[in-house]
Amino acid sequence: MQARYFALTSGVIFFLLGIFGFVTFFVSIPPADAPAMTIKSAFGQLFAIFPVNSLMNVVHTLWGLIGIIAYTNQSSSQTFARWSGYGAGLLAILGMLPFSRTIGGFLPLYSHNIWLHGVMAIFATLYASPRLRTTLGLKTTQDKTDEFSAARRSAQERKPKDLDKAG
Length: 167
Fold this sequence. Notes:
Layout: H1 3-20, E1 27-28, E2 44-46, E3 50-52, H2 54-70, H3 74-96, H4 112-128, H5 130-136, H6 141-166
Antiparallel strand pairs: 1-2, 2-3
């Protein structure tokens, strides 16, 4: 999957997560041991798993829209993937630290949000960095197409020389 499809897929997922966070049907009451939040509007557990509040929902919705817009060209898609990796990695780390689990009660980063942001950071980094994919031995369809094109050009360049040697 190219960075473009990563941007589109993650954009749609984050957009939907943001919208679902505002729909009370999808949000359950937070557990009794949940940290105190400064922003309490729409505070709860999305799908009874992920802690959310209204600010988190707005951030997810906007980030999703940015991903959908970034899908339009390869350069913006790679930039989106790179910044998604940076942001999600930072949020995963902040969620693990006891003093920053809620960033002052504004964003609930604890619980299942930690692994969600961690997985997002890994995938975003893989799609943002062709060099890393090559190092790990992961190939996308685009990488394979580029290798085939390079091999074909090389074969075409050698062909006339071989004919001159034979004649």
